[in-house]
Amino acid sequence: MDEIIQSAKTLQANVLEAVKTLNLDNDKAVIKDLEKKQQEPTFWDNQVSATVSMQKLSKLTAKVKPWQDLHKNVQDILELASLQDQSLLQDLSVQLKNAQETYKTLKNQLRFNGPYDDHDAILSIFAGAGGTDAQDWAQMLVRMYVRWAEQTTDVSATLIQESAGEEAGIKSATLSISGPLVYGKLKGEHGVHRLVRLSPFNADNLRQTSFAKVDVLPKIDAPNEVQLDEKDLKIDVYRAGGHGGQSVNTTDSAVRVTHLPTNISVAIQNERSQLQNKETALTILRSRLAQLQLEQHASKISELKGPNEQAAWGNQIRNYVLHPYTMVKDTRTKVETTNAQSVLDGNLNDFINA
Fold first, then answer.
1. What is the spatial distance between Cα 258 and Cα 274, in angstroms, rounded to a whole number?
2. Tell me: the pLDDT tens digits for 182-209?
3. Where do the domains of the chain lie?
4. In this predicted model, what pLDDT tens digit does every residue of 131-153 receive, in sequence order?
5. Both ends of the chain: CA-CA distance in Å?
6. What contacts 231, CB < 8 A, 6 or more positions away?
7. Cis peptide before 324 (omega within 30 of 0)
């Protein structure tokens, strides 16, 4: 029993240190304040503000509650162990082991301490060199990330924009991926992904190398996080293209927002509403500018110089080889697997964790 008490005390000290490092007492105060605001009769008068508050509360609760539960669990173990009742020994051993595993899982999340790591993510995929094969490869990557989201607890993926390829696949697509620490987990996917396989679009069935670029941004949907000056924005509206139907091409609902200092442009036409398309475009624009700030260490949006060449073609971060052998290998961490199909089916956690 003394061994259990000593191990539980060590775990308790580690948990308290983590709570201090994470500044959870401050988060608990914010949660209390948000819960108090929810009780106010006028809370839902401003739907946008209320939704932002609810999302913030949900995110903070998801961060704080597991640590609170773990701390209480360890306290309970210590109290029961202090009774020196040998009949409880086996149960307490199991509880302590479970608590230690929980701590290990939560401790891994401490790695995600970047300024936007707790945000959702905007993930865009662009076909690169390789013609139709590259467009097909881009679509395979979309499927891979959607499958990863489906297999990950509390994570979901929504298609925001897609541009179809001429013969097959896609030229580009943008996903909104939501869940705990999603940007922190996916930001390492940012870069060029290279595929080697026998081409299904080549009459001679020759080996083909294709490239696609994956762009991962922190989702900034709160305007106060990245301030945009109206005079720096050029907003164009136009008639949506595509396959029509459902009034999609009959109104000027598509929106293009250009940030003049950096010349970054975002065009959205998925929604029927011009206002919805504008809000989505502004969210993606803020996200791109936030990412750019991180890369250039600029303190002000006005100091940004436009996108850099960090993810230039040919600088692949990961190779996916389907012929003459199967192998997926990350060029940075050297993590590799011969089960390429499993990776393409969304089993990315080994690469993400590395």
1. 16
2. 999 999 999 899 999 999 888 777 888 9
3. 2-111, 121-215+328-353
4. 899 999 999 999 999 999 999 98
5. 37
6. none
7. yes
- Cα Rg for the chain, rounded, in angstroms? 24
Q: What is the pLDDT of residues 24-66, one digit of tens each?
A: 889 999 999 999 999 999 999 888 788 888 888 887 888 899 9
Contact between 130 and 137 under an 8 Å Cβ cutoff? The reply is yes
**Burial group, residue 281, by CB count within 10 angstroms (0-12, 13-18, 19+):** buried
Q: Name the CATH topology of 2-111.
A: Methane Monooxygenase Hydroxylase; Chain G, domain 1 (1.20.58)
Torsion sign over Cα 339, 178, 299, 112: negative
Nearest to 330 by CA among 191, 223, 124: 191
> Residue 231, class by beta-carbon neighbours within 10 Å (0-12 exposed, 13-18 middle, 19+ buried)?
exposed
- Structural tokens at position 127: 């076909």
Q: Are 318 and 306 in contact (CB under 8 A)?
A: no
CATH topology of domain 121-215+328-353: Alpha-Beta Plaits (3.30.70)
Q: What is the dihedral of CA 201, 204, 209, 212, to 10 degrees?
A: -10
Rounded to 10°, the helix 47-81/24-38 angle is 130
β-sheet bridge partners, residue 85: none
Q: Are 345 and 144 in contact (CB under 8 A)?
A: yes
3-state secondary structure of 102: helix
- 243-263 burial string, b = 16+ CB within 10 Å, else e? eeeeebeeeebbbbbbbeebe
Helix (H, G, I), strand (E, B) or coil at 117: coil
| C-alpha to C-alpha distance for 182 and 93, rounded to whole angstroms | 34
